[in-house]
């Protein structure tokens, strides 16, 4: 039995995810929903969706009885309303990151998923990749000794997208922190937990700085320093002004573990898929991650399908508790740098 997907939104990540679905025997794309008929038809044609299941409204897709699960791939401010509607339509859902704009919205989504007994996951796709699981396992086994510090960066050049891009518009949830801050944050939390053999931890302290621009009212870069109950610290950096550092490191008493390409291991141009461990002062030993299937979004879709088809409402790679911890930390990080959206005023 395969899971029948409908996608809401026909932008960048919707296309990437639809390609990932194509390679997954457990999944199939059966419907596409857009704000416009023309976009729905064009997208549907590219991915072999029947004309009748290319919908010019999101509501029409949610009313389609052939859709088991919905992938919400719109800008973040639309996630909350669409996720609640999806749950009420009794459909499972994979919601793009960040799950919603703030804790109040995430809580509403969790309540709706619980009430309607549907599967829900926030789409931190890198968490579903074998490289991430291997790195966390190595930390748990003590390859760097006692973990002291997690360093994680994510940056890309976003100016070329132009000022109309969601990245630069406050009303579309723009800025570096909301777009990519959740990646280093979710990695630091995962590793702080892995170090003690537990699920991801919530930070006990989070201090941040950032550059919220006067004209756009979104941040061009943001940094955070975190502390966890087990005395692990983390330094996070995100920026959307240049293709700068994207690597992650875990520093321990014995040595350092480094992953050069954690976020998009499917894109070889961003670096090799490998884990590098060096004892302090020595050359790194490299563990290559060799895989038959390399599409990151196929891993994500398969993780979701396995959970849904076995009756689970959550996926172990990104649980509901994990998403709550994420948004609480993101809210705190935003408060530290003075980054405000209209959702915060409701
Ligand atoms: N996991 C990952 O690797 C990635 C995740 N993302 C996440 O996915 C979501 C979408 O990002 P991305 O695909 O880059 O965004 P895009 O701007 O490329 O696409 C968003 C789509 O959402 C729909 N939409 C609904 N309301 C609006 C609106 N008011 N303005 C613009 N578009 C709207 C549009 O589709 P239509 O007109 O058909 O309705 C549009 O094409 C974000 O939450 C982002 O954080 C993004 C990139 C990578
Ligand atoms: O999640 C993401 O990862 C890659 C970025 O290019 C994109 O803007 C972001 O939404």
Automatic annotation (TrEMBL):
Catalytic activity: D-xylose + NADP(+) = D-xylono-1,5-lactone + NADPH + H(+)
Coiled-coil annotated spans: none
Pfam families noted in UniProt: GFO_IDH_MocA (PF01408), GFO_IDH_MocA_C3 (PF22725)
Ranges for domain Gfo/Idh/MocA-like oxidoreductase N-terminal: 3-123
The UniProt record lists the keyword DNA damage: no
GO molecular function: D-xylose 1-dehydrogenase (NADP+) activity; nucleotide binding
Keywords for the protein's UniProt record, in alphabetical order: Oxidoreductase
Domain GFO/IDH/MocA-like oxidoreductase, chain residue ranges per copy: 133-258
Enzyme Commission code(s) on record: 1.1.1.179
Family: Belongs to the Gfo/Idh/MocA family.
Name of the protein: D-xylose 1-dehydrogenase (NADP(+), D-xylono-1,5-lactone-forming)
Taxonomic path: Eukaryota, Fungi, Fungi incertae sedis, Mucoromycota, Mucoromycotina
